[in-house]
Amino acid sequence: MQPFQEAIVKKLKEEYHTELGKATTKQLYNAVSKAALETCWDTWQKPVTGKTACYLSAEFLVGRLIHSNLLNLGLLGETENLLKDAGINPNVFEDVEDDALGNGGLGRLAACFLDSAATQGVPLMGYGIRYRYGLFKQHFAYGCQQEEADDWLSWGDPWSVRRDDEKVRINFGDQSVWAVPYDMPIIGYGGKMVNTLRLWQAEAIAPFDFNLFNEQKYNDSVQQKNDAEAISAVLYPNDDTDAGKRLRLKQQYFFSSASLQTIFAAYTAKNGTDYSKFADTYAVQLNDTHPTVSIPELLRLLMTQGHLEFEPAFQIVQKTFAYTNHTIMAEALEKWSLSLFQSVLPEVYPYVVLLQNRLSNELVKKNIAETSKYNLIQDGMIHMARMAIYATHSTNGVAKIHTEIIKNSALPEWYALYPERFNNKTNGVTQRRWLALCNRELAAFITDRIGNGWITDFAQLEKLKPYAEDAASRKQFLQIKRTKKDQLADYMYRKDNFGLNTGNIFDIQVKRLHEYKRQLLNAFSILDIYFGIKDGRIKEFNPTTFIFGAKAAPGYYRAKGIIKFINEVANLVNYDNDVNRKMQVIFVSNYNVSYAEKLIPAADLSEQISTAGTEASGTSNMKFMMNGALTLGTYDGANIEIVQNAGEENNYIFGARVEDLEKIKDSYDPKKLYAEQPRIKRVMDTLIDGTLTDGGTGWFQELYNSILEGASWHKPDNYYLLLDFLPYCDARLQANKDYADQDAFAKKCLLNIAAAGPFTSDRTIQQYAEEIWHV
Ligand SMILES: *Cc1c(COP(=O)(O)O)cnc(C)c1O
């Protein structure tokens, strides 16, 4: 036995009084994780020298940690062999719940960044919230989404270490709580560097009073405990209500203050009260505006505990912080009501006023009289994106087009003021999780041809390009794709009790459910194909399986209506014996990181069909690309850079561009398209003519109206579904036709993989490190 294998056996014995053949999955999971943690403990505990970058994020969607950590430590093979020898399925850990402490792309990006930084030797600390319940679990009842609490800690949390000695006090207007850190090791590939993800948990200050003879004291104690723990109880609590908003603001300050207090105290312990080197010691990246209250918080610390005047404190703040913008939709830019902010954070508010005063002076000096678009405090609201741009030295977008939109149409007044601050950092994903781990067959295929350097140097993928010309390679690629489809079919049968036809084209759209991502357009196009086949309009059609996966925010009824609609379309198609040898439709339940790792390697077509100008970057488009799926998408987000690099002729790009929409937006008339195009009318009418039923919820009528009539808060067909419908159907049918020549299709897939090099988060992290953090 290898030393690590012995360590696992020993852990099982010492901690669980059991042995390999008898241990439960939970015991095995905890024993293997703890044994693995011990192998990198000393590396982890070594103090960091030099400048540290800190990544503040309300979300870290890390997924399942055990496989990626074992891979990075080089212990995955040994572990699997040990399990196999003991007669245990090496896939047992696929039952372990994901750490789902994030909603989607923004949280997954944070997780990919941590993996990349540790692998690239960049000292990067993650700071966030240890939510007691992560993103809800989803299942369907009669095609409608039902939510359940995500009790991820029921599996234990062997990768976290609680640090009671480093807890921090957080003060709100109406309560004080402890922030207790739980540290997770972030293990770089090869194990040379181990960074830390520190997640804060809220706890009551006063020890619990068990004095059961004093009912008042006991009840007060219970109340205090519950109020404190509520702060880190759930990911993004519903903020429709005022109570929800209050809690959300508390969450933001909670992790921001805890992180900044820690950084500040560590600096002071080392350097005393000379803060002149603070910004050379720490760089702090704000992942969206959620941690922006860190800015006045650091001002507060520097001015109260550090005894600095405002101006020198401001200079330090500005040099320390940088901000990443993730959205251009005006309604999604975060604002807080002034009165709420003052009541929740009375000790922080004065520093917001100081920032506003400094800004006002600057605007006067620059002769800017119209200040309403700049003011941090305006019309009774505090504007967080403005604060984040004003008080930092860098604002970045996450794809080229997104950065241009920020500069030219979302926040042009700020770009005019500080053009030098704006820069682009196109997102990426880690190829360790999204290729090496989730598609070992393709990883071996690549390594056989170009060596394994791509695992840490993804630019080497370019060397794969000549193999697109090699018939044997194309054939082998197609075999791998089939293997991944078969594996997905097994998994989906277990999870969703659905039988996939693995000889079909797999056409997949997986991402959070949102109107701008246009899952409804996808469903309309599937209906169009369905009617086309039934009517004989479509004669040649390569059998296709259309797969969806998405969660809708619990209060987002229109998104829930779209889920119900797609499930109804699936029923219509799957039970129709005229067409179900040609097409299948399935909406998988509880889409999460682990499901993504099964779905993406099996895809032939990657659906990236957001309205041009709405998706900041997208990252699943990159995961699909490196697994050899072709993009069927719009000119939006990183799709543009993907097809620029892989060749538009090797992908399927369709639809209106940002410039086109800009031109027609005032004259656009979806009713006209509906009236003039029978194919559009037919699919739209399925919402209201009884073809499909919403179970009496009224959701389908509402969807219909949202497109033809609009609503109080938006114009008709706000996301241009009907405008892009026919071009989308055409592109989709073209892809379907092209698939008939599988060999030619495989060539395109290989060219896409060979062009995926720039879309690693290793590249993104290197750019942040060099151009923003200077670490
Ligand atoms: C990558 C990923 C996302 C982001 O998907 P987009 O298509 O870029 O929005 C969301 N959820 C999960 C589980 C992911 O892995």
From TrEMBL:
InterPro entries: Glycg_phsphrylas, Glyco_trans_35, Pyridoxal_P_attach_site. It holds the Pfam family Phosphorylase. It catalyses: [(1->4)-alpha-D-glucosyl](n) + phosphate = [(1->4)-alpha-D-glucosyl](n-1) + alpha-D-glucose 1-phosphate. Belongs to the glycogen phosphorylase family. GO terms for cellular component: cytoplasm. The keyword Glycosyltransferase applies. Phosphorylase is an important allosteric enzyme in carbohydrate metabolism. Enzymes from different sources differ in their regulatory mechanisms and in their natural substrates. However, all known phosphorylases share catalytic and structural properties. Allosteric enzyme that catalyzes the rate-limiting step in glycogen catabolism, the phosphorolytic cleavage of glycogen to produce glucose-1-phosphate, and plays a central role in maintaining cellular and organismal glucose homeostasis. Its cofactor is pyridoxal 5'-phosphate. SUPFAM superfamilies: UDP-Glycosyltransferase/glycogen phosphorylase. The modification N6-(pyridoxal phosphate)lysine is found at K623. NCBIfam families: P_ylase. Keywords: Allosteric enzyme, Carbohydrate metabolism, Cytoplasm, Glycosyltransferase, Pyridoxal phosphate, Transferase. It is found in: Cytoplasm. GO terms for molecular function: glycogen phosphorylase activity; pyridoxal phosphate binding. GO terms for biological process: glycogen catabolic process. Its EC number is 2.4.1.1. It comes from the Bacteria. This is Alpha-1,4 glucan phosphorylase. It comes from Caproicibacterium amylolyticum.
